[in-house]
Amino acid sequence: MLPVTVPGAVDGWMTLLEKHGTMNRGEVFQRAIEYAEEGFPVYRELSDVIQKESKLLRQCPASEKTFLKDGRPPQVGERLVQKEMADSFRKIVEGGREAYYRGDLGKALVRFSERNGGLFAERDLEDHRSTWVEPLETTYKGYRIHVMPPNSQGIALLMQANILENFDLARIGHNTLDYVHLFVEAKKLAFADRDRYVCDPDFRSIPVEKMISKAYGKEQAGRISLKKATVRVSPTNFKSTGEDTIYLAVVDRQGNEVSLINSLYEPFGSGMMIDGTGILLHNRGRTSALTRPILTVLNRTSVRITLCARP
Predict the structure, then answer these.
(1) With contact defined as beta carbons under 8 Å apart, do 20 and 254 qualify?
(2) Which long-range contacts (CB under 8 A, 24 or more apart) does 140-146 make?
(3) What is the pLDDT of residues 212-269, one digit of tens each?
(4) Quick one: which of 254, 308, 264 has its CA closest to 285?
(5) Could you give the angle at the alpha carbon of 199 between the alpha carbons of 195 and 200, nearest 5°?
(6) Interior CA angle at 244 toward 60 and 189, to 5°?
(7) Strands (DSSP E) along the chain, which ranges?
(8) Do 208 and 216 meet the contact criterion of CB atoms below 8 Å apart?
(9) What is the 3-state secondary structure (H, E, C) of 102-148?
(10) Which of 12, 82, 199, 282 fits a disulfide with 303 by CB distance 3.0 to 4.6 angstroms?
């Protein structure tokens, strides 16, 4: 239970719907409830990943009951039915965010946590709120790129763009050996800093401006050799220098845009399902680091939403 942080998806859904939605909760959840209640044919990738993660799923009775048919992974074409999830969705339709964070579903999570060595208290759920933040921005050869700020890891994309802007990719040629090499090396450099510095900004400062500066991108580009791959990449010391995720992009007729990632982190998250709810718990805290006296958390919630509304 320790990698399971406060689930933020429900509050993210409700906040988005209340501020920008054009449908009610019943309309939004209708198809999801139908698929959970009536099931859907298992496709090849899902069958394969259940097979791969079957050992994990068997460690939790509710997960095993849901995803393993008579103790075996479902075959392609067999229906996966999740009636308990449908019931949980109906509770959210009826009670909104309160049904999860202050109602039966939240209380079930706390009881499940207590039985499985977790640290959840009801107050953890009651205190959770989605936050509205300003996106980070950089440019790439005239194009503006926006991403979510930490505690999201979108900053790594901006860092890679700033590094690669220093190379003539058109001359190098798309998907040539040098082209792929440059992308891999840029990613190594960006991810080394990501893993060192991206955390929960409520608890620790992050050198964001330095990380996404053009000067730093040029400096990082100078660390790349076209003749040799870097085996180990160390993060920059800024103090001294000053299969699992779904993605949706939707644009409506008025030009409003939603960029949505809804993730358990790994294919089945923690593999732990809250009894009687059909709800799998994520494990987004897996790569967190406990330092003194700060707990840095990569993602407190399991949903990231970006909104772009026309004036």
Answers:
(1) no
(2) 140/164, 140/165, 141/165, 146/306, 146/308
(3) 999 999 999 999 998 899 888 888 877 643 355 778 888 988 888 888 888 888 889 9
(4) 264
(5) 170
(6) 125
(7) 40-41, 79-80, 136-140, 143-147, 245-251, 257-263, 273-274, 279-280, 289-290, 295-296, 303-308
(8) no
(9) CCHHHHHHHHHHHHCCCCCCHHHHHCCCCCCCCCEEEEECCEEEEEC
(10) 12
User: How many other CB atoms are found less than 10 A from the CB of residue 120?
Assistant: 19
187 CB contacts (<8 Å, ≥6 apart)? Answer: 156, 160
Q: Answer whether 296's CB lies under 8 Å from 199's CB.
A: yes
Give the C-alpha separation, 126 to 105, whole Å: 12
| Cα 285 from Cα 273, distance rounded (Å) | 17
Q: How far is residue 267's CA from residue 283's CA, in Å, rounded to a whole number?
A: 10
Tokens 């946590």 found at: 113
Name the residue type at position 124.
D
Helices (H), 21-60: 25-38, 44-52, 54-58
What's the predicted TM-score (pTM) here? Answer: 0.73
Most distant CA atoms of the chain, gap in Å: 61
| Residue that has been written with the tokens 């990231």 in this structure | 304
236 is catalytic: no
- Where along the chain do the CATH 1.10.246.130 domains lie? 136-221
Q: Which of 139, 241, 245, 291 is catalytic?
A: 245
Interhelix angle for 83-95 vs 25-38, to 10°?
170
* 56-95 pLDDT tens trace: 999 999 999 999 988 899 999 999 999 999 999 999 999 9
CATH number of 136-221: 1.10.246.130
